[in-house]
Specification:
The longest helix is centred in the middle third of the chain and has 18 residues. Strands 1-2 form a two-stranded parallel ribbon. It is mainly alpha-helical. It contains five helices and two strands, in the order H-E-H-H-E-H-H. Helix 1 packs across helix 3 and helix 3 runs parallel beside helix 4.
């Protein structure tokens, strides 16, 4: 009942995202759920919760948000919750008009850090 988060899902997701070759990135929420071997119900919700945990860790550590590597298959952007949390964490501007550009910049930084 409720949003019981799997405590080792976030670290497993970070390892998955670190290990994928650049040409496979970004991946969709569904691809992440499948790669982690998650079984329904709420697989996408669980991936999203793990990504939010990673965003908090990365912002606290001053790193680019590795969560930028996971997108919706609808529009090649993360889901709305990513943007809401990025704003709340002070990483993205409050104005939604700037979100797509801020996301692309974040994605470039994550990819650059991975190859460093």
């Amino acid at each position: 009942m409720g949003s019981q988060a799997d405590p080792d899902l976030a670290p497993r997701l970070r390892e998955l995202l670190r290990g994928l070759p650049d040409e496979r990135l970004p991946i969709t929420y569904q691809q992440a759920a499948e790669a982690l071997g998650l079984a329904p119900p709420r697989t996408i919700q669980r991936v999203a919760q793990a990504l939010e945990a990673l965003m908090r860790e990365d912002v606290a550590a001053g790193r680019p948000m590795i969560a930028a590597l996971v997108v919706s298959r609808r529009d090649d952007l993360p889901r709305q919750g990513f943007f809401e949390l990025a704003v709340a964490l002070g990483r993205f501007p409050a104005d939604p008009a700037g979100h797509a550009a801020a996301y692309r910049q974040e994605l470039r930084q994550v990819l650059a850090e991975r190859s460093a």
